[in-house]
Write a structure and sequence with these properties.
The chain is of the alpha+beta class. The protein folds into two domains: 249 residues, Bira Bifunctional Protein, Domain 2 (BirA Bifunctional Protein, domain 2); 93 residues, Anticodon-binding domain (Rossmann fold, 3-Layer(aba) Sandwich). The strands form three sheets. It has an eight-stranded mixed β-sheet with strand order 1-5-6-11-10-9-7-8. It is elongated and about 90 Å long.
Length: 424
């Protein structure tokens, strides 16, 4: 048995948890369509260069060697997607979506892959709900993305929700801020952990997200990006806050909120929830106006967010929220082998065709009715239809309710109608 194991960082989604998944995916898809988004699916595998140019080789995914990359026989390099946005922007460019009515609003679901340390709600293969608006610079598009994320969690029953909000500037104003931050951190280099020294050298903004001991006190005195924004970024951020205020949405400005990928500009946000353990953030996203150009395409502004399904499930469990139970068979057909088995098989398929969830008792040889009734009880069956030889000969069915009602005999020709009326 030692070798019959999942690979490290992977998971099996068993039927009980799948109830959460189906509920989340259906809720998210319905909500996205209500906002005018359309579903797209893109390949799990893209050329590695797409992520190298889009995410940046200084991003955490590259620095920490988190990508699953494969060398092809022709010398090319392909990678299991570590995030969705670069692939969706590639699809927008390659499929000529720039000629569609703008903006283009897309959503998708599927797995992403990162070779990182497995932890609660985060696996090396984890599935994501991803939403993007492409071709629009209006801060109202940022708001729409943020509110779709917020309303997803509200629809699922999450409590204590609020936004964490920041602006990371743009190529005009971000360099000056990074220089100011680097100068500040360099003056306190003796207080930085090795991982933060590495980030300082390759991606200084990521130091702001440090969880290392003592960094909260140190970073409290660090320069803020808000003091370095150019006029365009400052105006964009102010307009977004005005729109949030108009909707009475709770938010906090968090100057330490950054993303681990290079392509983000201007707005970055997270949705935080109470009562879900140490990891208050349940999803995050932001604006990436320079991504399309970074991967070799035309200028295409964009904003979006991604939300891990596993993380949503974990939060629901921590808040004591259970998914609606899916429809399951409420009827079981019992038989005694031979001609009664043949009749039972035919009846079970007839009932299913009529939209009645039906379980069929399996048995290669004659099986006692007592055994079949135990099976029915284990699966919360409401009604057992018993087909004995006499019932088959007479074209009847013995119908036994398991809620204490009386057993009755119903003609097989009227059974579907009788069961439908009983269910109603």
């Amino acid at each position: 048995m030692a070798n019959i194991q999942r690979a490290k960082g992977m998971q099996d989604v068993l039927p009980e948890d799948r109830n959460y998944w189906d509920w989340i995916i259906q809720t998210a898809a319905d909500l996205a369509r209500r906002y005018g988004f359309r579903r797209i699916d893109v390949p799990i595998i893209e050329y590695t260069d797409l992520f190298a140019r889009g995410m940046g080789t200084a991003s955490d995914v590259f620095v920490q060697k988190e990508m699953y990359t494969i060398a092809e026989p022709d010398g090319s390099s392909i990678t299991l997607r570590p995030e969705y946005t670069a692939g969706l922007v590639r699809a927008y460019i390659q499929n000529g979506m720039g000629s569609w009515p703008q903006p283009v609003k897309l959503f998708t679901f599927g797995p992403i892959f990162r070779r990182e340390r497995p932890q609660a709600g985060r696996y090396r293969q984890h599935s994501q709900f991803d939403v993007e608006i492409l071709g629009e610079t209006d801060p109202a598009a940022d708001l729409e993305i943020m509110m779709l994320a917020m309303n997803l969690y509200r629809s699922l029953g999450y409590k204590g929700l609020t936004f964490q909000l920041n602006s990371t500037g743009c190529p005009v104003c971000k360099p000056a801020y990074i220089n100011a931050l680097k100068a500040f951190l360099a003056d306190h280099g003796d207080k930085l952990a090795p991982i933060d020294k590495e980030r300082l050298a390759k991606n200084p903004l990521r130091v702001l997200d440090s969880k290392e001991k003592g960094m909260d006190d140190l970073l409290a005195d660090a320069p803020h990006i808000a003091d370095h924004l150019c006029e365009d970024c400052e105006s964009h951020f102010a307009d977004l806050r005005d729109l949030l205020d108009a909707l009475d949405q709770s938010y906090s400005i968090n100057f330490r909120l950054v993303r681990g990928i290079d392509y983000y500009t201007k707005t970055v946000f997270e949705v935080w929830a109470e009562g879900i353990g140490a990891q208050a953030a349940v999803c995050g996203g932001g604006r990436y106006d320079g991504l399309a150009e970074a991967i070799g395409g035309p200028s295409v502004p964009g904003v979006g967010f991604g939300s891990g399904i596993e993380r949503i499930v974990l939060g629901l469990k921590e808040q004591g929220i259970e998914p609606p139970q899916p429809d399951a068979p409420t009827v079981m057909v019992a038989h005694f082998g031979g001609v009664t088995k043949t009749a039972a098989v035919k009846l079970a398929f007839q009932l299913r065709q009529a939209g009645i969830g039906t379980r069929l008792a399996f048995a290669r040889t004659r099986r006692s009715l007592k055994s079949q009734m135990r099976e029915a009880n284990k699966h919360a069956i409401h009604t057992v239809i018993i087909l004995g030889e006499s019932e088959v000969e007479e074209g009847m069915a013995a119908v036994r309710p398991l809620d204490g009602g009386e057993q009755v005999r119903i003609p097989l020709a009227k059974l579907v109608e009788w069961l439908s009326e009983t269910r109603d």
